[in-house]
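Hey, can you fold this one?
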Amino acid sequence: MEESIKNADGLLAAIRASFALQEQDKRQYSPLTLAFVGDCIYDLVARTIVVERANTNPNTLHKKKSELVKAQTQAACADALIPELTQEELAVYKRGRNAHSHSSAKNASIGDYRKATGLEALYGYLYLTGQCDRMLELIVKSLKQNGIEI
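Sure. Predicted structure:
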């Protein structure tokens, strides 16, 4: 797993280098900006899990991926992770959860949607701060604690 972690951090470094992106203080990013990135990175992780488990038709892959990324699943994962989070991680999660978005999930309660947004903000923060190993550790723990095969 160590090599994959280096590659994930390497991807972030390569993106920054390729586009001459300057280092920013991620603590200053709005929680919805962090969630915007976190949604994408979590979706990429979920897609990778699904594709690596079964090379099948896109519709089946989409359905399996959707089970992992839907707000209800993310909310359950967030609940499972709360005791595992550092104070800094918990603060980022809470900022994301409490952020007032102008959109909402089509098929989720407001509570689940907010918890999912908090989790996405946390994942976005961990990714953007180069803590991919910690992000993946939390994803694995949360899915296992919810009985989701990984």
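The longest helix spans residues 31-53. Let me know if you want another pass with a different chain boundary.
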